[in-house]
Every structure is written in structure tokens, then in C-alpha cells.
Design a protein that fits this description.
heterodimer; A: alpha/beta; Rossmann fold; five-stranded parallel β-sheet; four-stranded parallel β-sheet; 14 strands; B: mainly alpha; 11 helices
């Protein structure tokens, strides 16, 4: 009896030990904690309109990661430092994030030059950076730098060709932000594709992103007598150029770009932007995947405004980092998070539909060409009758 | 030729804004002896208040314009009495006033950013004249004509005020020497108050018209006008209304024609090169009699 008791105890101990090991193996995963993302915000400054949308989208995603227990008991905390789209202030903020070891990843940048300026510091400090707005190609560098911005270049070209196929212009004029390399590259790609189709370039009218008066540029563009004008500039310059063209009586087609998609642009420009075709990768009224619809509803409930492309990118940025964290076992470090992000090919949680990561760059399939209606709704663009 | 004339009109209209702003800037410098870095914010605030008057309070164009102009004048007056008057009492140098004005600029700029939500807003269509007139085949937007007319009226008014009125004589006397002006029976405080209001109102006028014509009402509106207005004052002469008006218009024309026939990238370079040349070669400007004193 004594023997059997001892044997029983041994068996029980062995079973208990095995059980403990098994349960430990099951429980393995991300160590519970609050993980901080250093967020270089652009809630003030010349493009604060977009910056505030990125911030609101990111905040919503961080709340959802916590409320849905996507990371078990862990959560993501956004640690903001304002830079106002200024390169020097952004570098200063990044230096502070690098020095703060509780920051596990960083995110920034609407302007490509600012993102480019931060890159060397990030690569040298070996901290993951997810870019949420800059549109220049070639910014990602594995395993440290990623971009959730859907590159607009191919979409610009596709939109220009779609509109041209329908309207058959003979010559076009490009209005270009001459001090922005990303837009120069986007315009050059479209110009090449258009010329390959036999559509002549009547001229390129240069403006600067900080310009406020576009009357002279509009006069210059109209003086070239094009059948169509394509605008490759940042938001305020695009709004100013299109308004000046319409005010001066240009009634032919103007093709814009994705900067025209936020609601605030329709509120600012009103009838002058109605009917102007432009490509988007996300629209709260057109994107119809279940994730997109859920995002729109949640955003409206939180912010009391419709989400735009920028809020979608901010939202996507937090979910990408959360997905990287989820795949890590134990306590994550900047190094393990960088390695985890590098392995992501497909988004667990996405709002665009058909989104994937390729060499650190988010991409989607398909292009939606839309325009604003007089009622302030985005609808798929159709050629005027 | 048609394109040249169109761009010339565009240049004159743009230059009229610079000149209008420069007039306010020049009055402050020649009368109060302040190189006021906050002057641009009066333009921003004038436009912001006028936009609210048009959009929220539904005032007609003229009333909105007047509201913006008066608001900018009052802000300038408050800034002067709160920030500059204590310095004047202590006899602080121009450098002290310049540093104080930079602080005022930053504060008013931040407040303007908050007031607009850091967004670029615009006057809703229908709240300002948008008729397009035609001179043959050349289009003439109503707002361009209004801007040019505004410059002519303000220039004439200020010229009459400063050169042919008792108040103008008092302003020039105070600008020359406040103590001597007091001995001569001029009340410097009264002149300072009137001058500060006039300068703010003039810059506010430029801000409202600029906000409408460029479809851009934001905290950054005044910054662009500030640099160009300063250039107009330097080139035209600090104490000469006609010089500032002419120089402002010339700068606008130069900018537009440079963009049209050379390159938009050279535009600002040419403007500021001109500014530098005048500061080095003829610091009193085309028509002015006042010089910057060297430190």
C-alpha cells in the first residue's frame, strides 16, 4: 500500500509536471504589457488637416487592439511628439524616442523629404519605423523601415489613362509641385505613359508647395490650350490650382490626385472640385469590405466625421505593428519586432481590400477612380455625357 | 501678347496685395519706429474674422470685409498698447521692440492656428463678388479689380493723410522725435494709437482680400504677405506711401512674369535678390528719406 502510494504520488507528480509544461507551452506568446509606439505627429503646421486624420485613425486602431484583446492582455500606447511637418523637429523627436528604451517602434511622416531625413537615424539606432503618409517610392528598408502608404504613382497613371481612354485628349498640361520629388516622379511616370499613347505634352507648369496664389499658374496652363490638365501637387496647391482654373473659366477636364479625397477638401473647394476625377485606395462611401465598413462606423462614432485616406493609413499603421507584436514570443524588443514585421506578407486586419506587404511597402490591387458630386459624395467617375 | 497682358494684370493684382500689406508695415516703421514681425498675423486675423462674419454671421461682402479690417486694427492696437507701449516708456531700442514683436507674432500665429483648426479654409462661393468681366478676350475677375482699386484708394487716402493733414504732420513729427513733437503740442499717445490701428487695419485689408483671391484663409496667410510686404517697403522707401505702392506692384509683376517666362523656382530668388540689393545699395528705398541705422 505504501509502495502504491509512493508510486501514485510519483505518477501524479509526473502528470502535474507534464501538465504544467504543456500549459506553459500553450500560454507562450507575447508577454503581457503596454507597448509604446513613438508617434511623430503633424497635428499643426501646413498639412495639419492630414496629420489630424492620421492621428485619429491610429488612436482608433490602438483602442480596438485593446478592446478586441487582439494581443491578449497587452495593449498599444501611442506616445505623441509634435513636429508640425518640420524635418528638424521630427529628427529631434525621433532622437528622443530612440533614447527612450520603452519605445518599441516609431511612426511618422506625411512628407517624403522628412521621412528621408529620419531614415538614417532609424537605421543607425535599429528601431522599427512605420511610415504612414509619405508617398515617395523606395523609402522602406528591411528590417527597420516600413510604409503603409499605398504608393499613388501607379494609381495616378492608371487614373490618367482611364480618363484619357474615355475622353481622347490630344494634348495635356501638367501642373507640378516642382519642389516635391515624389510628385515629380509621379508626373514623369504618367507623362511617359500618356505620350506612349500619343497624347502630347503641351507644357508643364511649375508651382511650389508653399504658394498661395495660383492665378498666374492657371493663366499659364490655360494659355497652352490643352484638352485636359493633370494636377500633381500637394493638397493646398491642388485646391488652389483647380479653383484658379475654374474661376478663370477652364471648363475642360482636370484630373487630380488622391490629395483631393478628404471631406475637408470638398468643404473648402465646393463646386470647383465637383466632377474632377482622381484615384483613391480608400473611400468611406465606396470601399465595401466588411473591415472597411466596420472601420468607417467605428471612426464616425469616435471622431464624428467620415474617415479619409489618411485616417485609414494611420489605422493601418497601428494594426501592422500589432500584427508584428502578436507573432512574438515573450518580451518583444526592437530587434524582434523588426524581424517580425519583415515576415508579414498579408495583413490580418485591413481596410483597403486586397492589401499586402511587399519588401516593406504596402500595396493593393485595383484602382478606384472617383469624383465629388455637388452633394459632397464620392462616386465612381464616369465620362461626362 | 494676350497671355502677356493677362499675366501683367495678374501681377498687378498680386502686387497690389503686397503693396497694401506693405503700406501698413511702412506706417508702423516710419511713425512708431518698430520693425513689427507680428504685422503678418494682423492680416491672418483680419481674414479669419471676415471669414467668420461671412460664413457664420452671414454678413454681406462689404460688412464682412469691414469687420475683418476693424478687427485687425483693434488687434494691432491691443498689441501695441500691451507689448510696445511699456517699451516706449522705457526708451528701449529697436532691437527690444523687434524681439517683443517676434514673441507677439508667435503667440498670435499659434492662436490663429487654433482658431482655424490648423486648416486652410476659404470663403464660401457667393459671399464675395465672383463676376468675370472681359476686356476683349482678356478675363478680369471682379476680385482682382477690387484689389487693385483698394490699393489705389488706400494709397491716395494715406498719402493725403500723411502729407496733407494735421494728423499726418503729427505722425511724421512723432516718427521723427516724440519728445520734440510733445513740446510742439502733439499728443504722442494719441498719434501712436491712431497709427497702430491704421497699420493693423491696412494689413487686415490685405489679409481679407488675399484670403478671398487665393482661397486660403489660414494662420500662414500673413507669413507670405509679410516677407513680400517687407520687400515692398524696403524697395519703395519706409516713409513714402507712393514708393511702397509702386514697389509692391512691381514685385508682383516681376514674380508673375518670372514664373511665366523663366521659372517658378527663380521667382522668390529674384524678389529677395532685389531686396538685398536695395538694402546694400539704397537702404532708404526708391522714394524714402529714412535709413536703417547700423548697429
Amino acid at each position: 500500500m505504501r509502495f502504491s502510494l509512493r508510486l501514485g504520488s510519483l505518477v501524479l507528480s509526473a502528470v502535474a509536471f507534464l501538465g504544467l509544461q504543456t500549459s506553459q507551452a500553450i500560454a507562450q506568446g507575447l508577454a503581457t504589457g503596454e507597448y509604446k509606439i513613438g508617434f511623430i505627429t503633424e497635428n499643426t503646421g501646413p498639412i495639419a488637416q492630414a496629420g489630424q486624420s492620421f492621428w485619429a485613425g491610429a488612436q482608433l486602431a490602438a483602442e480596438e487592439v485593446k478592446s478586441t484583446k487582439y494581443l491578449g492582455g497587452s495593449s498599444i500606447l501611442l506616445e505623441p511628439k509634435e513636429a508640425g511637418s518640420d524635418a528638424a523637429r521630427s529628427i529631434q523627436a525621433m532622437s528622443q524616442f530612440i533614447a527612450d528604451r520603452s519605445i518599441i517602434a516609431t511612426t511618422c511622416c506625411i512628407l517624403s523629404p522628412v521621412a528621408g531625413a529620419l531614415k538614417p537615424a532609424v537605421l543607425s539606432a535599429k528601431i522599427p519605423l512605420v511610415i504612414y503618409g509619405a508617398t515617395a517610392a523606395g523609402l522602406p528598408e528591411l528590417p527597420w523601415v516600413y510604409s503603409v502608404t499605398i504608393l499613388p504613382g501607379p494609381k495616378d497613371t492608371a487614373a490618367a489613362l482611364k480618363v484619357s481612354d474615355a475622353l481622347k485628349p490630344k494634348s495635356v498640361v501638367y501642373i507640378l509641385a516642382a519642389d516635391n520629388d515624389a510628385f515629380k516622379g509621379r508626373m514623369a511616370a504618367t507623362q511617359k505613359a500618356m505620350e506612349a499613347k500619343g497624347i502630347a505634352t503641351a507644357g508643364v507648369v511649375s508651382v511650389l508647395t508653399k504658394d498661395t496664389d495660383f492665378t498666374a499658374a492657371a493663366t499659364q496652363a490655360m494659355g497652352l490650350k490643352p484638352d485636359m490638365i493633370l494636377v500633381y501637387t500637394t493638397q493646398q496647391a491642388a485646391a488652389g490650382s483647380i479653383s484658379a482654373l475654374r474661376d478663370r473659366g477652364f471648363t475642360k477636364t482636370i484630373v487630380g490626385n488622391d490629395v483631393l479625397s478628404p471631406d475637408s477638401i470638398f468643404k473648402k473647394m465646393g463646386p470647383t472640385v465637383v466632377g474632377v476625377p482622381f484615384p483613391v485606395s480608400f473611400s468611406d462611401t465606396i470601399s465595401d469590405s466588411p473591415e472597411a465598413k466596420a472601420f468607417v462606423a467605428a471612426y464616425q462614432a469616435k471622431v464624428h466625421a467620415a474617415p479619409d485616406i489618411y485616417s485609414a493609413q494611420g489605422y493601418q499603421m497601428v494594426w501592422l505593428i500589432a500584427q508584428g507584436l502578436k507573432s512574438i514570443t515573450g518580451t518583444p524588443t526592437r530587434e524582434t519586432l523588426g524581424a517580425a514585421l519583415e515576415k508579414i506578407e498579408k495583413f490580418d486586419h485591413q481596410v483597403y481590400g486586397g492589401e499586402f506587404m511587399k519588401e516593406g511597402q504596402a500595396q493593393t490591387t485595383g484602382t478606384i477612380v472617383v469624383n465629388w458630386t455637388a452633394e459632397g459624395k464620392l462616386v465612381p467617375w464616369t465620362p461626362p455625357k | 501678347m494676350e497671355l502677356f497682358i493677362e499675366q501683367l494684370i495678374n501681377g498687378v493684382a498680386l502686387g497690389s496685395l503686397y503693396a497694401l500689406f506693405g503700406l501698413g508695415f511702412g506706417i508702423v516703421f516710419s511713425t512708431l519706429g518698430i520693425l513689427n514681425a507680428a504685422q503678418g498675423t494682423y492680416a491672418s486675423w483680419g481674414a479669419i474674422v471676415a471669414l467668420n462674419a461671412a460664413d457664420q454671421w452671414k454678413l454681406p461682402f462689404a460688412a464682412s470685409l469691414l469687420t475683418g479690417v476693424v478687427a485687425a486694427g483693434l488687434i494691432a492696437l491691443i498689441v501695441d498698447q500691451v507689448a510696445f507701449q511699456p517699451l516706449r516708456k522705457r526708451g528701449t531700442s529697436m532691437l527690444g521692440a523687434l524681439i517683443t514683436s517676434i514673441a507677439c507674432w508667435i503667440i498670435l500665429d499659434s492662436l490663429a492656428g487654433t482658431a482655424t483648426g490648423h486648416n486652410s479654409l476659404s470663403f464660401p462661393r457667393g459671399t464675395y463678388p465672383s463676376t468675370m468681366f472681359h476686356l476683349g478676350t482678356i478675363p478680369l475677375p471682379a476680385m482682382q479689380l477690387i484689389t487693385i482699386a483698394a490699393l489705389l484708394v488706400v494709397t491716395l487716402g494715406l498719402q493725403l493723410l500723411t502729407r496733407h493733414s494735421r494728423l499726418g504732420s503729427a505722425m511724421r513729427a512723432v516718427g521723427w522725435d516724440q519728445t520734440a513733437a510733445s513740446i510742439g503740442g502733439v499728443n504722442p499717445r494719441y498719434v501712436v494709437v491712431i497709427t497702430a490701428f491704421l497699420a493693423g487695419a491696412t494689413s487686415g485689408f490685405a489679409g481679407v482680400l488675399g484670403g478671398i483671391t487665393t482661397q486660403n484663409v489660414s494662420f500662414m496667410l500673413g507669413e507670405g504677405l509679410m516677407l513680400k510686404g517687407f520687400a515692398a517697403v524696403v524697395v519703395g522707401g519706409y516713409d513714402d506711401v507712393r514708393g511702397t505702392a509702386l514697389a509692391g506692384v512691381a514685385l508682383g509683376v516681376l514674380e508673375v512674369l518670372t514664373s511665366q517666362y523663366l521659372s517658378s523656382g527663380l521667382r522668390d530668388g529674384i524678389t529677395y535678390s532685389l531686396l538685398l540689393i536695395f538694402l546694400l545699395v539704397r537702404p532708404r528705398g526708391l522714394f524714402g528719406s529714412l535709413n536703417f541705422s547700423r548697429a
